[in-house]
Amino acid sequence: MPIVRHHVKSGWDDIGMRMQHLWEQTLDWIGDDGFKLYVYGMNGWNIVLYWTVGLALLFLEMSDWPKWLIRYKIQPTVTVDRKRLTSLIALNLFNQFFVAIPFTIFGYYVLKFQGTSPPIRELPTLTRLVVSLAIIVVIQEIIAYYAHRMFHHRLLYKWTHKVHHEWTAPIALTASYNHPLDHLIVNILPTTVGLFLTNAHFFTTWIWLTWATLRALSDHSGYNVLKFLLPRRHDFHHQKFTDCFGVWGPLDYLHDTEKLFQKNVASLKDREKSN
Ligand SMILES: [Zn+2]
Ligand SMILES: [Zn+2]
């Protein structure tokens, strides 16, 4: 056994060494200036990713194509109202350029002030990467659930979160269709607080934000394709407003805010069985 273990260990070490080498080569090519990497690199990457996937899904939605995809539509009778697309695109761009980018600049200077960030050139170990991501997922779940519920309070809802709920049948690009304050507190903070608390490496931040962007797009896509990401949950939240405030759902279970959703899932299963 020790021999096998030794091989496994050296296998991981080997991958780690190669990754480190590749990372250094990439930084030699793009530069390792912290401000440029965090502000231009991270935002540029996320904006391109968001619009590429979001617009591609919008195109498929508007053209009712391909046929196999239509079977996965969560609300199959609803079509996109073209008249709403201008405000959808405008608010997305506003949030990216006037909320997300200023927040990244602020975050960068907080990191610089703290001075404890791991050196960019030295990749985190696999264990550190996995443990950091696990903590970040838990922190996101907790803050997202309570912040989201708070924005459903009648005093806040009317002038903030109501905007996001204009879309009762969401499409991918409604992921950042929020009042700017709502975008900052319900979308950005839950996703990023964990990065500060775990003193995340730039590489961890990049992996996490890529994941979070894709997850938000899937949650709002209106398609139940990536079932393991539970897109029905958030889609149902847009339909009913009273259930499914969390990302994965443990706090909805704990606070009993998924009763209607569970009933809906049960009736869908019954319908599938009888067909
Ligand atoms: Zn939403
Ligand atoms: Zn909501």
TrEMBL record:
Primary location class: membrane
Keyword ATP-binding assigned: no
Membrane spanning stretches: 47-65, 85-109, 129-148
Keywords in alphabetical order: Membrane, Transmembrane, Transmembrane helix
Molecular function terms, GO-annotated: C-4 methylsterol oxidase activity; iron ion binding
A GO cellular-component term linked to this record: endoplasmic reticulum membrane
Annotated protein name in UniProt: Fatty acid hydroxylase domain-containing protein
Biological source species: Daphnia pulex (Water flea)
The organism's taxonomic lineage, starting at the top: Eukaryota, Metazoa, Ecdysozoa, Arthropoda, Crustacea
